[in-house]
Predict the structure of DNA repair protein RadA.
Amino acid sequence: MAKHNQTFACQSCGAVYNRWRGRCEACNGWNTIVEETGAASPVSGPVATRPSRARGRVFPLEGLSGEAKEAPRTSSGIAELDRVTGGGFVRGSVILLGGDPGIGKSTLLMQASAALAARGERVAYISGEEAVGQVRLRAERLGLSGAPVELAAETNVEDIVATLTQGRPPALAIIDSIQTMWTETVESAPGTVTQVRGSAQSLIRFAKTSGTAVILVGHVTKDGQIAGPRVVEHMVDAVASFEGDQGHHFRILRAVKNRFGPTDEIGVFEMTDGGLAEVPNPSALFLAGRDLAAPGTAVFAGMEGTRPLLVEIQALVAPSALGMPRRAVVGWDPNRLSMVLAVLEAHGGIRLGGHDVYLNVAGGLRIGEPAADLAVAAALVSSLSGAPLPSDAVYFGEVGLSGAIRPVAQAPARLKEAQKLGFARALMPHGRGEAPERGFPAESLRHIADLVAGVAAGKAAPRGGRRPPVPAYDPEE
C-alpha cells in the first residue's frame, strides 16, 4: 500500500514545511500555507537489486568547428508577438503568459492560433476554464471561426498529452490556464502548488520530447505577479506579461524572461472591435493629443528592449496645505521620484518641501529605466516655475546623487527615433563620444543646475514662435 506523506506548502512561493505555520518565512506571506498530501512510491528490496535508471540516450556535440546555427523558429504571423518572443516560437519551448483578467490574453492567443493554422500548421487550443462552444463564440466575434484550430475542454494533463501525441506533433499548443490543470500523479486539489508544479512539469516534458511549442496561461495576483509557485517561472523558457489599463485602448506584451531572445522587449497592441491590432509606431500613439503649451510636460526618449520609444512625462507641483505634502506617482518608481526631488533641492536650489507633487506617464505606460530622471526633473522644474518646456525637444539622462547628469546607453537610437517623429533638438548628458544624428542639434548637460538655470532664464520657451509638429497616430501606419 502506498505511503502518504503530509506536507505543508506555501501557495505563493512554493516553500515546503513539515508543519503548519501562520507566516511563510520565504515570502513573508500570511495564511498562504496549505496542507497537501502526496503519495510516495514504495521502495522494496536492497539497492543492488533495483533496476538501473541509466536508460537515457547521449548525443554527440556536432558542429564544434562550424558556426552555431540558430534554433529553428515558427513565426506566429503577428509581428509584435514575434518581436517579444525573439523572432517566433522556438520548437520545444514553453512560454508562460500572465495578465489581468479580461486584458486580452485569450484574444491574442486565438489570433495567433488562427494565423499559424492558416499556414497549414497543426495548432491545439486546450481550455480548462471555458467550454468548446464558448471558445467558438470568441472566435466568431473575432472573425476567425473558419480557422482550422483544434479545440478541447480538458483539465487532465495525462489525457491532454495522450491526445496531442496522436498524429503529427502540433506546432503550437495553448493551455488556458495552468492553474486549472491537474495530474493523476499528485493527490492534491487543482490550483495548489503541487498540482501546478506537477502539471507544468508534465507539459514541459511533452514539449521537449515532441518539439511542440507550448504556451501556458497563468493567472495574476492583486499586485500583478503571476499566481502560483515561482518555481514554474524558472522551469519555463520564457515569461511574458500582458499589461494594460482598462481606461486605455492599448495593451503591452512585455518579455520578462527569454532564453532564446532579448528580455525587456515589448509589443504594443490596440484593442479594437475586431480584436487586437498591432501598433508598429507606438511613439506616435503615446504622444498623440498632447498639450504643447502646458507647463510641466516633457518628452522622454526611452528604450524598451531594442525599441526606442517616446513618451510624455507629466508633472504637477502645487502648494500644499498639509503638514506632509503628497507624492503621487503613476507609471514610475516612487523611490526614484523621491531621489530626484532631493537632488533638485540639494543641488538645484529648488524648494519642493511645501508642495504636493504628482507625476504621471501619459498613456499608462510603466517606465523602469533610470534614463527618465532628466525628463522628470525638467517636468518638475517647468511645473513649479510655470514655464513650458520646448515641445520640439526630447530629454533623457540619469541624475546622480551629486547632481551630475550621467550618460545612458543607446543614445543614437533615441535620437534617431526623435528625429523621425519631427523633433528638432535633444537635451542629453555629456556623453561618451556617441555622435548625435546629422542635422539634429543636441545640448549636453553636465549638472542638474544647468537644467534649472536654463528653465529660469527662459530658454525653455519655443524659439521664434515656431510651433513644433505634433505626431499624428495612424493605426494603419
